[in-house]
Amino acid sequence: MLIAGNWKMNMGYQQALSFLLEFNKLVKKEDKDSFIFFPPAPLSLIFEKEKFYWGSQNIYQKIKGALTGENSVQLFKEMGATFCLLGHSERRYIFGETDVDIEKKFSLVQEQALIPVLCIGESLSERFQKNKVLIKKLSWIKQYNKYEKLPFHPEKLPPDFKDLSFIVAYEPLWSIGTGEIPSVSELEDVISLIKEDFPTVKVFYGGSVSLENALSLSCDKLDGFLIGSESVNPHSFYGIYKQIKSC
What we know:
With 247 residues, the protein is of the alpha/beta class.
């Protein structure tokens, strides 16, 4: 399993340095390949000398241009990023990103040989028709011929991730911030639904993951976690990893 931490806009510079100082004390050298960090863009530089995977929280739909305030996927690649979050619920529902926007970004990320982490999920009102909702959010990838041909294969990725084309992060909106989580059977149904069309894709779960519920969310079909608030505390973040590893 890979454990990904989305810091969102919750880390200052000194706080991030303190986090990494403490986190490096906790993590064994051989376990560092099990973590991915998604820092705010200005903090990307602090990962240049770290042995952790990291990625961008968002990119713009073009490589470059007169686009004040936006971030280029090409720049993240040059800085050493491996992954890129796309379609996070906050991007969709706060900033109004559509599947069309996300498809454009998905294309750019793969052109730059980074690994897209595509977030999908359903609201509370959509919970009981989630299959229909999730299929719609993935349908455009079926027409995207390049999704199986990612040229970037980091040598240090775990064996099961070597031929990875993209990751799907399932984050039910009804779970985020509520403490309510799907049952293992619900989670397995979603994973089976995704892998029915994309059998080689890895599936992460994100939505109120904590020290208290990580074990109850674990299942054989799950490939990792995308963790929000708990990822800004080094002891909580590492504690979740220790629990999962001990299963």
